[in-house]
# Entry
Amino acid sequence: MLLVLENEVNPEVRYFVRAMSEFLPEHAVYDYVNEDDRPSLLGVDGIVVAGSTAGVYEREEYPWMDEEAALVRELVERRIPTLGVCFGHQLVNYALGGSVEHRGLMAELVHADFADDPLFEGVDDVIPAIHGDHVTELGDGMESIASAPHCEHFATRHRDAPLWTVQFHPEFTDALLPKIAADFNWHENDLSFADATGEKVFENFARLVDD
# Structure
């Protein structure tokens, strides 16, 4: 069973986590923003640390981030398979000593350069990017496994623990585009969602959890 950590502070854009349900096997969602207790890991085989419009540098406003960062360190120590997505990518690297900076919103399809990693099996290099924050310094034990023209650390993984992170949203397919175009300043270019298969990241992660 997978546990998805919901981190979105804006209720109007919580459709990202809802969209994940189409691509995940058996899973539950824990609301890190609104729940008071720490999530139980009993019976949990893997974790997905989901996205957020908040930034990891807003910890005074959102004190739950420090608790979640402590949980990330526990997941690494216990070797529980974990996938960080967008804000999750940033939080994981921050939790392990890395740095995150705001560099302005990017909202368009981009070409990604993927390393040979099982997380990216069958994933084409056209990826929808929608983020304003960047990991600028990797966390301890993390290494880059993807880059994009605008983003040096587009995905990372831990050298020892079963921990992966992606700056992009694998759940962002063309089905979400109308909502995202309305809520964010989406920019059309000559790339096409017909060539985007980022959702396979979830399938690959679920297989890695099973393995």
Strands lie at 2-6, 27-31, 46-49, 82-85, 99-111, 113-114, 126-137, 142-148, 151-158, 163-166. Helices lie at 15-20, 64-78, 87-95, 177-183, 200-210. Residues 99 and 128 are 23 Å apart (CA to CA).
